[in-house]
Amino acid sequence: MRKQSSSSSSMASTKLTLLLTTFLFSSLPFTFSQAKSSEDSEPYVGVNIGTDVSKLISPSEIVSFLQAQKISHVRLYDADQDILKSLARTKIRVMISVPNNQLLAIGSSNTTAASWIDRNVVAFYPETLITGVSVGDEVLTTVPSSSPLLLPAIESLYNALVSSNLHTQIKISTPHAASVILDTFPPSQAFFNQSLTQYILPLLQFLSKTGSPLMMNLYPYYVFMQNKGVVPLDNALFKPLTPSKEMVDPNTLLHYTSVLDAMIDAAYFSMKNLNITDVVVQVSESGWPSKGDSKEPYATIDNADTYNSNLIKHVLDRSGTPLHPETTSSVYIYELFNEDLRSPPLSEANWGLFYGNFTPVYLLHVSGSGTFLANDTTNLTYCIAMDGVDQRTLQAALDWACGPGRANCSEIQPGEDCYYPNNVKNHASYAFDSYYQKEGKAAGSCDFKGVATITTTDPSHGSCTFPGSKKMSNKTKQAVNSTHISGAAERSRFIAFSSKELVVSFSSLLFFHLMTPC
Question: How many domains does the chain have?
């Protein structure tokens, strides 16, 4: 769930709970009639774009970056006019959003809804490829007082689209927190929170009638964090599992190798319980933080890289879910940029694939999954020291790289090409890049306890050629064990972050380990 900035109205916090009880063998898989959306004929991976970023670059630069990275689907948390203008005449498809604080006006007035569509859709379409309108965000669980207004707002906006003859090209829905579904595992026993049925059932009927998706914000990260020791990390990260570690639904005997698939199928079973079988699930948010405080030790670059890389492959492989292998949900990754203006905890500002200056937080490993995210395939990436790291910390990282890390540090010795400028940051950058290239740019090889970052800008200078440079010759020199140099101390940089809590409620969960016969 994306929280509003500190200047917006506060949202109620929610927690993930998991109750372990036994369950009965009862239901069988249901038949699902796949609904085809005119938005896309194939599943896709998009990205959410938040703008709580210090020194945010211009909308035109954002769009150029999206094109360079071959990102073709984006979701905005508002209907930013400048971004919509910049997206004109590109092939990038965009979902715009109605913030929660606008629901009252739109849900209470057809005229206001029509004006919103005219101002934010009709004014830009078709030059800007608007494919969807997301109305509110987790309204039923975060601002329950607005629940009665949700469907009226959606219907008013839909009627405005009908009046403009855009209702078949542009779909309308609303994102839900995972907590609207209870008893999520086994998926076959999942059902919508009965206290919300009065709102969910008519909404689902609307989605069925209009061919729109059920939007769900699904975060396996929070499922794992609140249930360590019950949910295996590998299961949350899409990693291959042995049969004995798979989650098995005893009612359907379907094997689940990923938490996300189980959450998606739980949504399908929940809809089936309300006699809705023709609405597709769309994952409006999912991701994994790359950094956290001491209470979030699994918020790491390695885990974020693994989750998002595997998520992308999972979607683009069109492997579906155990219940519906024929139907693959499209997913919007949370999120494009680290939003450094968010308040604690630390992880809240570290969900992004990139920093605000376009530097990748890590290199996704999605080779063979199409052209999505060009930063996976480029060879021109380097590992350098971050700005603002204190000299002592940087020196320790440099010593490790040149010592136990076995980086080739010969070029930063006195008299060699990369000795100058003679300071810790310059020498550390060279050593970091040497280690990073030596390790094949593997996930986590450009971290050094948070003092290194990946860049696409060649750090070579003068006669000094960095190991990752395309100009690098085949020089081979003896690696040295350590490097001690003088340099001015640098200030540490601290950024304020904000909390993100996903609402997920699991009950009746039990892992059944089925052994494969010899």
Answer: 2
* 439: annotated active-site residue: no
490 lies in which domain range? 375-495
Report the length, in residues, of the chain: 518
- What single-letter DSSP state applies at residue 360? B
| C-alpha dihedral sign at 137, 138, 141, 147 | positive
Do 380 and 325 belong to one domain?
A: no
Q: Give the pair of three-digit tokens for residue 172.
A: 């309308």
d(CA 61, CA 65): 6
Residue 232 lies in a domain: yes
- Tell me the two tokens of residue 229: 């020791």
Q: Of 285, 335, 339, 501, which is the active-site residue?
A: 285
246 in catalytic set: no
Listed in order, strand segments (DSSP E) in 85-154 are: 93-98, 129-135
Question: Does 299 reside within a domain?
Answer: yes
Same domain, 344 and 323: yes
Tens digit of each residue's pLDDT (9 = 90 or more) over 374-415: 554 345 678 999 888 889 999 999 999 999 999 999 999 999
Pairing between β-strand 281-286 and β-strand 214-217 as defined by DSSP bridges = parallel
For residue 477, pLDDT over 70 is answered with: no
Q: Is position 356 within any domain?
A: no
Distance of alpha carbon 107 from alpha carbon 490, whole angstroms: 53
Has residue 435 got a pLDDT over 70? Answer: yes
Asked if residue 404 and residue 344 are part of one domain, the reply reads: no
Q: Which of 138, 155, 339, 501 is catalytic?
A: 138
pLDDT of residue 371: 54
